[in-house]
Each structure stands twice: as C-alpha cells, then as structure tokens.
Automatic annotation (TrEMBL):
<keyword id="KW-0326">Glycosidase</keyword>
<dbReference type="InterPro" id="IPR051912">
    <property type="entry name" value="Alkylbase_DNA_Glycosylase/TA"/>
</dbReference>
<dbReference type="GO" id="GO:0003905">
    <property type="term" value="F:alkylbase DNA N-glycosylase activity"/>
</dbReference>
<keyword id="KW-0378">Hydrolase</keyword>
<keyword id="KW-0234">DNA repair</keyword>
<dbReference type="InterPro" id="IPR003265">
    <property type="entry name" value="HhH-GPD_domain"/>
</dbReference>
<dbReference type="Pfam" id="PF00730">
    <property type="entry name" value="HhH-GPD"/>
</dbReference>
<dbReference type="InterPro" id="IPR011257">
    <property type="entry name" value="DNA_glycosylase"/>
</dbReference>
<protein>
    <recommendedName>
        <fullName>DNA-3-methyladenine glycosylase II</fullName>
        <ecNumber>3.2.2.21</ecNumber>
    </recommendedName>
</protein>
<feature type="domain" description="HhH-GPD">
    <location>
        <begin position="52"/>
        <end position="203"/>
    </location>
</feature>
<keyword id="KW-0227">DNA damage</keyword>
Amino acid sequence: MTIHLETQSDLEEAVHALIKRDPRLKPVLEIAGMPALRRREPGFTGLAHIVCGQQLSTASAAAIWARLSAAFDPLDHDAVRRARADRLGRLGLSAAKIKTLKHLAREIAAQRLNLDVLAEEDADAAHHTLIALPGIGPWTADLYLLFCLGHGDAWPAGDLAVQEGIRIGLGLKARPTEKQMAPIAEPWRPLRGAAAHLWWSYYRAVKKREGVLAESG
C-alpha cells in the first residue's frame, strides 16, 4: 500500500516511524528539527511549474511562472496544447521547455498519460513512467512525486543536498553517488519521501551551523 504525505501530521508520523526503525536518524532529527511538509498543486499545472524551474534560479523561475499564470487562466494542458510556441517563448520559456510542455499536454489530452494515478503506483515505477517522457529528468520526476502527489516513498537519489546531508549525518567518507543512494535508503522504504524531507532539513541546519562556526573561528 502506498503511503501519502498529505498533511504535516502525516509527515510527523512518518518521521517518528523512521526513527523507530533506524536509530541513526534520531540525532539527525534532533539537529534538523521536525521538517515542514512541502506541497504543490498536482496534475499538469504542478508538473509544468517544476519544468519551468529546471536549471534556473528561484527568482527567474518565479518570474516566468508568474507571466505564464497571468497569460493563461486556467493554466492547464488544453491551454498549453493550443498556445502558439512563439507566444510561450515570449513569456520566457526556452524551446526545450516548450517542447516538453507541449508533449505533456498532448499525452494528457490523448489520455495516454494520467499524472494522478502515479500517486498510487510504486515509487520506482512512477519515477520510471515520468522519466520516459521527453524533457522529464530524475530531478523533475522526484520533485513531482514528492511535492505534487505527496508520494511517501519517492526518493530523490540525485539531489545534492540530500546526498551531502547523508554524508555528514551518517559519517560517510564521501558524498554518496546517485547509484549508492538506493541501497542507503533501502531501510527507509516505504517512507523514503519522509526521509528526504528530514535530510533536507538536516542539510539546511548543518550548513547554517557550519557557516556560523566558520565565521567565529
């Protein structure tokens, strides 16, 4: 059965279950504090939002998204499917992102792709369904599963902050590679999504703390 992280209490319950299962995570939580649940809109809109932010600064991504949202109301797959590519380009989207969004819109319109059913699928299977789509890489797929669908077992193995948090928190000699992240997270199934939230919070707490120490020394 797939576990969903729909509310903050869902996440807190999952984190406490993880700590009971893996005592190594107790000091991680003590430093990180309880992470806050991060959720975004599901469906085409949520995935389009993540695609718009690929390889861009937060400010640039937010500006493009604001222009898109203002230009299309509602911003759904039909609106993007019918929109002229040059109009989308004037709003700040690159040719590659326009191609990705157009393909997604056509697949959804033809009912060949149902983004909502991915919430009930095995996390690894849902991940592979998404990365098979043009322009959707592992980072985009994992963020969609975690933040838009609240998939409790989605695991962002390629996320540098999670990798670095694990290196520090588990006392590893080197930051684990994307491939090495799979066996590391195996004990946390089916709550790897909650573990990701915890490691993000830990990374932020440790990096801030390390910065303070460096400045005072």
